[in-house]
Amino acid sequence: MTPIQMVDLKGQYQKIKNQIDSSIQEVLNAAAFINGPEVKNFQKELEEYLNVKHVIPCANGTDALQIAMMGLGLQQGDEVITVDFTFAATVEVIALLKLTPVLVDVEADTFNMDIEALKKAITPKTKAIVPVHLFGQCANMEAVLEVAKEHNLYVIEDTAQAIGADYTFADKTTKKAGTIGNVGTTSFFPSKNLGCYGDGGAIFTNDDALAHTLRGIVNHGMYKRYYHDVIGVNSRLDSIQATVLRAKLPHLDAYCDARRKAAQYYNNAFATSDKIITPITSNYTTHVFHQYTLRLIGVDRDALHKHLLDSGIPNAIYYPVPLHSQKAYADDRYKEDDFKVTNALVTSVISLPMHTELDEEQLQFITNTILNFVNK
User: 365: how many CB neighbours lie within 10 A of its CB?
Assistant: First the structure.
């Protein structure tokens, strides 16, 4: 059996090696490394894929979130609501901009924002909501939009883990994750479903005026060289990363299908275990399985984590400490009773290998090893 990887980027690369290598060589030959044709071409192709008017490439997914908030004109002290159960980048940028992060609990089955918790968290200072499409499926965006409309709030989608997912509204219309709110953001970190070979990110919007502002912000506030119209940052996607993303974008749906196939194998294998809860896919979204995350019942999660590592099976715990308990974001406003689901998840979840190159022999070994452990 081929050694199991948490994410097999080497195997994925080998299948598109010739295209990747030739594309990178073309960039080197042209020596247009920043804002070159490859960046503009990728921007246009991603706009077509997402069916969104504007894609603004940037240096990474964290920058994408920060720039989106800057573009919306949020001011110091404005409250921004997001989830407690996510990677720190989501709340990090809120704090960096001297906005006030407000954390809310998540749903136990989807791991995404709890709408009732969202409603309770709104105050006169609330200006924006950041739903995180965690692990590969969309949050309940129709409900989020209803709350936002009622309170005149911005919606900033964190789509770092769900690019390629489809959201279906009650009227059966569909939109891609990241194109539903006022603005969406994503990361092209190498392990993402659409990942480059370094850092990269992008911002999406259908708002022409907002797109114009964002394009200035990513480039030092310039629309014309040496003329700074807005306060900006230096956050640009480089041409080598763009050409890698151009090569991968046509394969994105196939990559997501491969992940779904692996997820279905896991689901079937664990279906008879009363100690394992497999991921739930909501009826309003597809799932692209950036992560495949189990919930364990009556199982020593940390012992399983070690047993898998000892057996040559990489795995991860996303996330071991909730944001409200992190030293950087601790706040007297937070009460443990407000985070019952998150506090339970951080002690019971475990994420298994999930990527496009998993084969049946590997999947069988992984699932048998887990079942033997939980049933002993």
Answer: 15
Q: Are residues 18 and 98 in the same domain?
A: yes
N-term to C-term CA, the chain: 25
**C-alpha to C-alpha distance for 85 and 81, rounded to whole angstroms:** 12
* Residue 347 domain boundaries: 252-374
The one-digit pLDDT tens for each residue of the chain (376 residues) are: 999 999 999 999 999 999 999 999 999 999 999 989 999 999 999 999 999 999 999 999 999 999 999 999 999 999 999 999 999 999 999 999 999 999 999 999 999 999 999 999 999 999 999 999 999 999 999 999 999 999 999 999 999 999 999 999 999 999 999 999 999 999 999 999 999 999 999 999 999 999 999 999 999 999 999 999 999 999 999 999 999 999 999 999 999 999 999 999 999 999 999 999 999 999 999 999 999 999 999 999 999 999 999 999 999 999 999 999 999 999 999 999 999 999 999 999 999 999 999 999 999 999 999 999 999 8
CA dist., res. 5 & res. 47, Å (int): 32
CATH code: domain of residue 81: 3.40.640.10
Count of C-beta atoms within a 10 Å radius of residue 70:
20
Residue 2, domain member (yes or no): no
Instruction: Provide the domain count of the chain.
Output: 2
Virtual torsion, Cα 322, 323, 325, 329, nearest 10 deg: 180
Residue 313 tokens, joined? 């099976």
For residue 336, give Cα distances in angstroms to 44, 322, 324, 339, 343. Answer: 45, 11, 9, 5, 8
Measure the CA–CA gap between 113 and 126, rounded to whole angstroms: 16
Q: What angle do CA 148, 149, 151 make, to 5 degrees?
A: 65
> Does 127 reside within a domain?
yes
Buried b (16+ CB within 10 A) or exposed e, 267-284: eebbeebebbbbbebbeb
**Domain membership flag for residue 128:** yes
Distances (CA, A) of 222 to 33, 136, 202, 229: 19, 35, 18, 6
